[in-house]
Amino acid sequence: MIAAGTWRDRRVGLSSHPWSWDAGLLVNVSTMLGSVGISADTERLARSMFSPEQVPDALEIVGWYDDVQAEDVRRAVLTLSKGDVDALLHLVVAAVTDFRDVLMWASQPEPTPEERAAAWARSQEMVREYERARRRYLEAKYGIKGAEQIERSNKKLFGKPSPSDPGPGPG
Predict the structure, then answer these.
(1) What share of the chain is helix, strand, coil (3-state, %, to 5)?
(2) Could you state, in order of their start, the residue ranges of all structural domains in the chain?
């Protein structure tokens, strides 16, 4: 997680210590807001989602997107970030790459726990089917003993459990 001010200090290079603030960096938030053209509605949304010490960072990050449908995209990234500055940063990068992705994500409803569980179960079944197909391939190519030897060797080399193990579940 980005601590308040850390990304800015590194970007601007004004601080001698990587976790300290430069006193003059956020002198006038209103000047910053006017310079990037953030609307009052977007500012209110940011203030409702982020802690007071994170608001200047969040507003500056949101202000980095100044392209097509800027206010719609800014509101979308704020909403999708759910008050997480790291997520906000990634969402703004995604918006700069293709703003339509962010608008589409914001238009989709949040999946229910049942939908998440069903998606998890489908993905686990796909992994199990892949492993069965891989095992059939290895047996056809190297025989049963050869396939078992390859599996043992892979487990010894990589030490990872089989992808078909249930794991921690959706989350």
Answers:
(1) 65, 0, 35
(2) 6-107, 110-171
pLDDT in tens, the chain (171 residues): 444 444 444 444 444 444 444 444 443 444 344 435 788 888 899 999 899 988 988 988 898 888 888 899 999 999 999 999 999 999 999 999 999 999 999 998 888 999 989 999 999 999 999 999 999 999 999 999 999 999 899 888 887 655 555 555 554
Looking at residue 161, its amino acid is P
- Which DSSP string do the residues of 21-89 spell out, in sequence order? PPTTTTS-HHHHHHHHT--HHHHHHHHHHS-TTTHHHHHHHHHT--STTHHHHHHHHHHHHTT-HHHHH
What is the three-class DSSP state of 103?
helix
Contact residues for 33 (Cβ-Cβ < 8 A; gap 6+): 43, 59, 63
Write down the pTM of the prediction: 0.52
Side chain identity at residue 134, one-letter code:
R
